[in-house]
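quick q for whoever's on today - can somebody do inverse folding on this one?? i tried earlier but teh output was garbage lol. tokens:
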């Protein structure tokens, strides 16, 4: 028989995507930024490196508010150096870098996870970073990332690696950045948490730059590929498959898609991502509506079984009225479940595209 939304509400499914939406310990919720005009950043023949030694030269790149860019390249080629330039942690040695003045950047690295004070709590960390904010605002930001109740006051030393990574992400996004730069964000995350991160990135309205070996995440979130290689960075006109062939077999990138094909592919990927995000939101809304209807149905059934313990709104209703009300709620529940099944099947179709 077909599984329904209410079945899942009572017995959460084992799929990572369901847990990612329904397990608060897997929560990622990036606050959306204010709107800025494009471009956010432009690089014009820029060079960047350390001390007086450039690592990357002849950098020409434009980053817009809705870009989702994956930085590709072998370890040591300069992906993190480019990420640090975009995050304004390194200044260009030559050429120009222009960034809109109102832009806020959230930059995540593994170092931030390792540098968390193990004796402090998530609430301590966030309160320190959000100076001047109300306690409610601090709690709200922690809640977006699953740190509510006792979890907010648990010492960092007792948190798992994945929980520490989520806390670091909560800290860097406290100001609703326009650009997220994430350097290997999934290193400490299990499969379910990675799925939750992918969904959060697809719901996020700002720009994203990713450095990651997690191909699944790149395929589901990035629609632009930039190859960092041979001392520079350039738009990669192939697909991720082409890139892997380039790395593993030494095949030239030109063996992949043409530039025109790649442009069409990027457009199609963006459309799929938008459709995916819309369907996931619809499913979440339907699951919330299912929960509300089930809560009301359960309250009616309790009133029918124990009139003395009925909620005030049902306490004066006759058994016939309660039966009628229950039937009305069941009709609503059935209708919502039908919509949920339809949306879930549509999402599976999009995911398979």
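ok took a stab at it. sequence:
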């Amino acid at each position: 028989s077909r599984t329904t939304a209410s079945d899942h509400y009572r017995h959460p499914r084992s799929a990572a995507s369901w847990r990612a939406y329904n397990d608060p310990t897997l929560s990622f919720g990036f606050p959306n930024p204010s709107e800025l005009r494009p471009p956010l950043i432009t690089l014009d023949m820029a060079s960047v490196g350390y001390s007086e030694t450039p690592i990357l030269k002849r950098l020409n790149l434009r980053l817009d508010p809705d870009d989702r860019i994956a930085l590709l390249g072998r370890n040591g080629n300069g992906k993190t150096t480019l990420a640090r330039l975009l995050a304004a942690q390194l200044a260009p040695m030559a050429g120009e870098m222009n960034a809109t003045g109102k832009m806020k950047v959230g930059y995540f690295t593994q170092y931030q996870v390792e540098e968390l004070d193990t004796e402090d709590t998530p609430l301590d960390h966030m309160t320190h970073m959000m100076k001047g904010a109300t306690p409610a605002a601090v709690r709200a930001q922690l809640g977006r990332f699953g740190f509510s109740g006792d979890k907010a006051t648990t010492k960092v030393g007792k948190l798992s690696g994945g929980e520490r990574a989520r806390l670091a992400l909560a800290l860097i996004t406290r100001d609703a950045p326009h650009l997220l730069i994430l350097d290997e964000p999934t290193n400490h995350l299990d499969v379910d948490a990675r799925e939750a991160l992918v969904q959060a990135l697809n719901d996020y309205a700002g720009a994203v730059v990713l450095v990651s070996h997690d191909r699944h995440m790149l395929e589901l979130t990035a629609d632009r590929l930039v190859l960092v290689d041979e001392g520079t960075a350039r738009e990669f006109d192939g697909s991720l498959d082409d890139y892997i062939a380039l790395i593993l077999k030494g095949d030239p990138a030109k063996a992949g898609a043409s530039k025109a094909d790649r442009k069409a592919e990027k457009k199609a990927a963006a459309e799929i991502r938008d459709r995916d995000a819309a369907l996931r939101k619809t499913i979440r809304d339907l699951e919330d509506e299912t929960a509300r209807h089930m809560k009301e149905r359960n309250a009616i059934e309790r009133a029918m079984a124990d009139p003395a313990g009925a909620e005030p709104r049902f306490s004066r209703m006759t058994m016939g009225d309660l039966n009628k009300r229950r039937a009305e709620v069941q009709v609503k529940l059935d209708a919502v479940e039908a919509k949920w099944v339809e949306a879930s099947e549509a999402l599976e179709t999009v995911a398979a595209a």
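fwiw The mean pLDDT is 85. also Strands lie at 41-50, 53-63, 68-72, 94-99, 105-108, 179-183, 207-211, 224-229, 232-235. so keep that in mind when u check it
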